[in-house]
Write a structure and sequence with these properties.
Blueprint: E1 3-5, E2 12-14, E3 17-19, H1 28-40, E4 45-47, H2 55-63, E5 71-76, H3 81-95, E6 100-106, H4 120-129, E7 133-139, H5 143-152, E8 157-161, H6 168-180, E9 183-187, H7 198-205, E10 211-216, H8 220-232, H9 238-251, H10 271-274, H11 277-283, H12 292-299, H13 309-313, H14 320-338
Parallel strand pairs: 3-4, 3-10, 4-5, 5-6, 6-7, 7-8, 8-9, 9-10
Antiparallel strand pairs: 1-2
Helix pairs in contact: 1-2, 2-3, 3-4, 5-6, 7-8
Length: 339
């Protein structure tokens, strides 16, 4: 398996990492089997988050006895230093480890810095001094914030959506990170499920030598496909390049990255959730999306006034109102089958 150095961390990680978020939907025994098989297959980097329900616990259950063989990245949604410290202690307990290799601020609304009133960065520095974390990272969905973090010299790694549907500006972020020696961790390497050919996606990603994609895996056959892709190690074929161009034409206009630039919505529609609910239902436990409360939230889409705020503020040029209506129709059909 190909390995790479993750920026200034000097961690020698497998070029293909395991995104543990989808394992939320997998029973504990099966999840543990998949995680152990991945480690046996050479995957030595696992990305999770405090917000991914029992994903941390599954890593701890499956792999804690082999802690020296792999690296862990996890995240906290905490808004202040005390909250971050609490999240960190919970993560350490669930992961059954005394340290976390990369601890990330989870999609904050700003770039946490020393001296901020929230105390987030100081709390991370304190944890680092205590040996509870080794490196400080941040994950974002907003490109300007990711660029600012890369320029700040405060972060060892940046996690950002990246796939062959990415724009040239987003590809430029990977070059900036290489220039600044910041490790680039690519989330949504399959664009939240819109890309279905992992072999083509893997071959395209391999061209970006400083990028470490975290492939979301839920089932053993998905892991098998990833391992097969790593063994092939070939460049892009003409057929694969044609597939990429076709997907770019057909899919780029439909993928909501959840960045939140469209908010606030005058009709109080949580656009960055509602516009990608069909993807979330494929990647996360479905029960929380089936409650009367969630149904009520999705029903708000009918209150759209067509003001155009969301569409005009989308940095990816999405037809957001149309995407919302499509997701609402899909969701209502899904409810019929679920009930």
């Amino acid at each position: 398996m190909t390995k790479t150095i993750l920026g200034r961390t000097n961690l020698e990680v497998n070029k293909d990492a395991f995104g543990v978020l989808p394992l939320q939907r997998t029973p504990m025994d099966e999840a543990a089997k998949i995680l152990r098989k991945a480690l046996d297959g050479g995957i030595n980097f696992y990305d999770t988050a405090r917000g991914y329900s029992d994903s941390e616990e599954k890593i701890g259950t499956a792999l804690s006895s082999r802690r020296g063989e792999f690296f862990i990245a996890t995240k906290s949604h905490a808004k202040n230093g005390e909250g971050l410290k609490k999240d960190l202690e919970t993560s350490l307990e669930k992961l059954k480890t005394s340290y976390i290799d990369i601890y990330q601020f989870h999609n904050p609304g700003l770039v946490p810095r020393p001296g901020d009133e929230n105390g987030l960065y100081e709390a991370a520095l304190e944890a680092k001094a205590q040996g509870k974390i080794r490196f400080i990272g941040v994950s974002y969905h907003k490109l300007p914030l990711a660029k600012e973090a890369a320029e700040s010299a405060l972060y060892d790694t940046i996690q950002f959506p990246f796939s062959y549907l990415s724009t040239e500006e987003e590809i430029g972020l990977t070059r900036l990170c290489a220039e600044k020696n910041v490790g680039f961790i690519a989330m949504k390497a399959l664009s939240g499920g819109l890309i279905t050919d992992i072999f083509t996606a893997h071959a395209w990603m391999a061209q970006h030598t400083n990028v470490v994609p975290i492939w979301g895996i839920q089932r053993e056959n998905e892991l098998d496909e990833l391992l097969e892709a790593t063994w092939r190690q070939g460049g892009l074929t003409a057929e694969q390049q044609e597939r990429i161009e076709k997907d770019r034409r057909e899919l780029s206009g439909e993928f909501c990255r959840g960045c939140g630039y469209c908010l606030p919505c005058p009709a109080e529609i949580p656009i960055n959730m509602a516009a990608r609910l069909s993807l979330l239902l494929c990647r996360s436990p479905v029960a929380r999306f089936l409650t009367p409360e969630y149904q009520s939230v999705m029903d708000r889409i009918e209150n759209c006034t067509g003001c155009g705020h969301c569409k005009s503020h989308c940095p990816y040029g999405l037809d957001t109102p149309a995407l919302l209506k499509k997701n609402l129709a899909w969701y209502r059909e899904f409810l019929k089958t679920a009930n």
